Amino acid sequence: MSGRVVRVASGQGFWGDWLEAPVRQVRDGHVDYLMLDYLAEVTMSILQKQKSRNPEAGYARDFVPLMSRILPDIADKGVRVITNAGGINPRGCAEAIVAEARKQKLSRKLRIAVVSGDDIMPRLDDLLARGHTLADMDTGRPLAEFRAEVLAANAYLGMAPIVEALRKGADIVITGRVTDTGLTLGPLFHEFGWDFDDWDKVAAGTIAGHIIECGAQSSGGNLLKDWRKVRGLENPGFPIIEASEDGTFLVTKHPGTGGVVNVASVSEQLVYEMGDPHHYITPDGVADFTSIQLQQAGKNRVKVSGIRGGPRTPFLKVSIAWFYGYKAVGTLVYSWPDAYDKARAADKILRRRLKNLGLEFEQILTEYVGVDATHGKLSGPPPADLAEVQLRIGVRAREREPVERFTREIAPLVLTGPPSVTGFAGGRPRVEEIVAYWPALIDRKEIESQVRVDLLEV
Amino acid sequence: MATAKRPKTKAKPKAKSARVGKTLRPRRPAAPLPPVKIQLRWLAHARSGDKGDTANVGLIALRPEWFPILVKEVTQARVARHFKGQVSSVDRFELPNLNALNFLLHGALDGGGTISLKTDAQGKVYSTALLRMEIHVPADVARQALP
Hints:
The complex is a heterodimer. By secondary structure, chain A is α+β, with helices and mostly antiparallel strands. Helices cover 28% and strands 26% of the residues of chain A. In chain A, the strands form 3 sheets. Chain A has a 10-stranded mixed β-sheet, with helices on both faces. In chain A, strands 5, 14, 15, 16, 17 and 18 form a 6-stranded antiparallel β-sheet that branches. A 3-stranded antiparallel β-sheet of chain A has the order 9-10-13. In chain A, a hairpin with a 4-residue loop joins β7 (240-244) and β8. In chain A, α1 packs parallel to α3 (63-77). The longest helix of chain A is centred in the last third of the chain and has 18 residues, at 339-356. The radius of gyration of chain A is 25 Å and the shape is globular. The mean pLDDT of chain A is 96. Chain B has one domain. The longest helix of chain B has 7 residues, at 67-73. The model of chain B is unreliable at 1-21 (pLDDT under 50). Chain B has helices spanning 13-17, 67-73, 76-82, 126-130, 139-145; strands at residues 36-39, 44-51, 54-61, 89-95, 100-106, 134-137. Helices cover 21% and strands 26% of the residues of chain B. The chains are: A alpha+beta, B alpha+beta. The interface between A and B is large, with 56 and 43 residues.
């Protein structure tokens, strides 16, 4: 590996990840960049809903108290933060950080960049009118049929606006729907000045980003191989990329932290959510996962090299959230003896009652937790002396009313159904609104001309 | 709870003759030992995730020398049969550089994402469901693989 090394640390693998991780990443050792991934496929719709109730909301609220804790470290050490916590309202998020920074006596001024232009909700009708079908990539259905149901629509942006923000001197870059991998690619391309058309470098940065985008899932968390031997997960070391100018990099973690970085932990993360490994498509290029070479280069150090890639496509992916309907899940626990038979009898009774009430559902799904909930029929029959089983029944409908009524049919089973039943202390199940995900493609020119990078100063 | 079955190599008389090396009798030029059926859990580790209504399972050989066995035995057709009734179709990709196979299990998630009513709506443990599959391996591989 060549001399200069850039260290990009993962601080959150999803919204709701371990809150201590980013703090440990900036305090337990040297890092140049802290990357925080907040956005899953359905997160945008939740944020859209929050913003429709309160125009100042619409971003990952947890990000603000989290940044409040590490702002002094960032100012002192010059760690730069890249995050898509901005969700549907990156400017609002940035302004909240500015307000937070003003409250603190920081050692220097911070510059905060806001990346916008991914939100195409305001332009949706115009785009549809101009012939963009935004057809569902899985089913081929055109979006126009479901236009009234659409709650949020965002294009996945790549690294370009992040590189621009860093070039303008941003200490904190807050984006909306930028790809997980773009959050890592941005700093690498900024630091090394790589050409955006150097496809092998794009692929290398993409794979570096993929390895750390799920936080500790590449450094010992959720690791199946030799899981009993993974030590210290009470203080898991989140992964860090040590990238070199030649496009190779190391995956590592801070000394003294728990977990493990080895070929197995990195391999498991590499295959996570993988489609066709020859064509891992991002807004910035196409990475070939069959070119990746892994090598244990020391304790908790894995060298990654050999990565090849190909040119970016003319399209960007759009994530559209649309209102689908309602669902609810009810559970009850039945105990030995004959736990499984009792639970099955209860299921039969409940289904008859739902039918007698004339309730119509798109689906009723029964699972027996402890018997078949995770592996279905592959689990085989349960043992005769099963200690207990949880009956778990879910229903889904386009209308609220049948789902609402279903939630009132669970508790009565306790006194009107099979015996030895418990575990209903949580009360009536909650009716949940289903916001479904609609992936589509759009001509990237439509989006890229609208992307903006604005700078706020504390 | 139906925990994963240990293969009964000991019960098979021919497999037992493989233990002749433990005795002091001189080894006869033995006929090749018949293959032994074992669960994938002893040969591979795995992780799964989701994309819409498709679950993926990345299956990684626990030892590089076992990867060719996975390539030969864990075919697209056999995985489709393993998950019959649970998935609509299966694709398989090879990643020899990682000693891994990647399977796409289409229609595996009851609609997927937020629509699915399943406990495992995001296919997080389809990985271990694949590891239940039994394949034939040479007797010496079974001996190395089993705990």
